[in-house]
Predict the structure.
Amino acid sequence: MQIQRVAVIGAGTMGHGIAQVAAMAGQQVRLTDANPDVLAAGLDRVRRNLDKGVERGKVTPDDREATLARLQACASLGEAVADVDIVVEAVPEKLQLKRDLFAEVAGQVSAGCVLATNTSSLSIAAIAEGLPHPERVLGTHFFNPVHIMKLLELVHHPGTDPAVLDAVRQWGEGLGKTCIVVKDSPGFATSRLGVCLGMEAIRMLEEGVASAEDIDTAMVLGYRHPIGPLKLSDLVGLDVRMHIGEYLARELNNPAFEPPALMRAKVAAGELGQKTGKGFYDWER
């Protein structure tokens, strides 16, 4: 099977980025969101990303226009998913929300359509459970910002058809991504390691071991990480990281993933990181 027509559900931080890279790769893309304002904002983010690409000489003006021409905004879910080869959902990281969405989508897609979930930690088998074709369900974990980050984590559950996994790997490589294949396990390969490191960094900050800047510098210069764990937590969103940590602590029965009190306090205060202007760093300075 060959994937050429793509529907992306959810036009937020991840969804608009997935739609952008697919359209830039020559795919016909439909983007939808339950909130019209989020859909409009997502399209605007794509335009601004492409404008920056033109300014920096990484995208030609013609490629910008061609990319936008391949990207269609859809007001309804049914319009978005009709006759596409793959549906990628990028809705909030809530298991029941993703299950309910795919249950609705499953009755509206064409035969052979792949259902891909952009979860960073949730069980793919649980998302696929009860669907008419669970063999066509897998995880496609993209990374933010999608148009810059090269990794795509593909997650297969025990019932995923190997041919589907192979087709999605080829599709991902066509988007310019380096694909890794991981079996369905809490947190997969990336979040399981990354969140554990992030929680320990927060505990170190809580204990006064070092400042946020120095903890991050230790990992950047000492271990060649491109970004420190605390700054990364701010970029992901402290609320998102907290929920993932709670899920992994429960599913893996491992207290190392339990969100520290400092993280819970920041989330309660609305200090969620870059998106609110303050987290472990002051992003408004």
